[in-house]
Design goal:
9 helices; Carbamate kinase; alpha/beta; 246 residues; nine-stranded mixed sheet
């Protein structure tokens, strides 16, 4: 199927790599994600990926327990590098060319993030995994995803989650939770919906970068989104005819 986008930014949570495990990386889950990404690569889509580190270390949680916030966030950034190297390894076992670029210098492990080099890798058909967050504390990997998407001129941010879109409340806790088919950036901010943090949403709004939130756990969902199929929740400037839940 012909892809609907030429260049995309895929945002994965660290928890996505955890699978059914309470901590760390579940190898079968990692391999499944890598296979889905490899299938996208075969279509010719240029793909950048940002991964969180919550399966290993959560800076905000550690800060709440008394650790200095900056120190905790730096540890979280290091966790994203670990996840990025794991995904790179899984992709390269499938003969998919990748580069890990990190905002925190680790010359023996990954390239330093350089925007022009990242774009060149994408143009050459390599998947670029952006690690180390923005390189600054007090920013989430959601903000990293929005920032990198703008820098590489991605057409869309695909946010892979464990639920099938954006709800008015947590569907894991509330049976009457209502899913939105589409939302504007302002609606996300006004309703306080947990799509991405407010900094990331504002950045996408200011630069007109749409976000698609979808369920990663449904096989081949990444391909379906990239082919243009309407699944999950679309966040953009203007709603299509029919409003929030057409």
């Amino acid at each position: 199927m012909e892809p609907a986008y030429k260049r995309v930014l895929l945002k994965l949570s660290g928890e996505a790599l955890r699978g059914s495990e309470p901590y760390g990386i579940h190898q079968a889950t990692l391999q499944n994600i890598a296979q889905q990404v490899a299938n996208i690569h075969k279509t010719g889509v240029e793909l950048g990926i940002v991964i969180g580190g919550g399966n290993i270390f959560r800076g905000i949680a550690a800060s709440a327990q008394g650790m200095d916030r900056a120190s905790a966030d730096y540890m979280g950034m290091i966790a994203t590098v670990m996840n990025s190297v794991a995904l790179q390894d899984a992709l390269e076992k499938l003969d998919v060319p990748t580069r890990v670029q990190t905002a925190i210098e680790m010359h023996q492990i990954a390239e330093v993030y350089i925007r022009r080099r990242a774009i060149r890798h994408l143009e050459k058909g390599r998947i670029v995994i952006f690690a180390g967050g923005t390189g600054n504390p007090f920013f989430t990997t959601d903000t990293t995803a929005a920032l990198r998407a703008m820098e590489i001129h991605a057409e869309v941010i695909l946010k892979a989650t464990k639920v099938d879109g954006v709800y008015d409340k947590d569907p894991m806790l509330h049976e009457d939770a209502v899913r939105f088919d589409q939302l504007t950036y302002l609606q996300v901010l006004e309703k306080g919906l947990h799509v991405m943090d407010s900094t990331a949403i504002s950045l996408c709004m200011d630069n007109d970068c749409p976000i698609v939130v979808f369920n990663l756990n449904v096989q081949d969902n990444i391909q379906r989104v990239i082919s243009g199929e309407r699944i999950g929740t679309l966040v953009a400037h203007v709603l299509a005819t029919g409003g929030e839940n057409e």
